[in-house]
Design a protein that fits this description.
Order of helices and strands: HEHEHEHEHEH
Largest sheet: 5 strands, parallel
CATH topology: Oxidized Rhodanese, domain 1
Structural class: alpha/beta
């Protein structure tokens, strides 16, 4: 039996995603909490979200469900995605959210920005988190 030959590493595809998705720093994103023009989207899984809490007002949308949450035809659609706002995607450190942002942009969601460094950068910059 032959082993798999992986031709692209996870690190490489995250790097490509980060190069193609606009970024925002935690410092620049903190003042946007509660903004009528921005929606924070948490792409971590439910156990991570429960453990640390979410950025206040954020939409919980795990990376595995994102496309279904965005698509208005999907039974799992979340109306938060059907707004004329800027979507700030984040995860624990910025990799999964960059991949998710690229998929969302490919679906036509815009504008989308990725929070550089994710929740860890957010906490370092003094950003608050709340239990949902």
């Amino acid at each position: 039996m032959m082993a798999q030959t992986i031709t692209k590493s996870a690190k490489e595809i995250v790097k490509v995603a980060m190069a193609n998705v606009p970024a925002i720093t935690a410092e620049d994103a903190i003042p946007l909490v509660g903004s009528p023009d921005h929606v924070f989207v948490d792409l971590r899984d439910g156990t991570e979200q429960a453990k640390t809490g979410l950025i206040p007002g954020a939409v919980a949308s795990s990376r595995g469900m994102l496309e279904f949450h965005i698509d208005p035809e999907s039974p799992a659609h979340k109306s938060e995605f059907n707004q004329d706002k800027t979507f700030v995607f984040y995860c624990a450190s910025g990799g999964r959210s960059a991949l998710a942002a690229l998929a969302a942009m490919d679906m036509g969601l815009a504008p989308v920005v990725n929070l550089t460094g994710g929740v860890s950068a957010w906490k370092k910059a003094g950003g608050s988190l709340e239990q949902s």
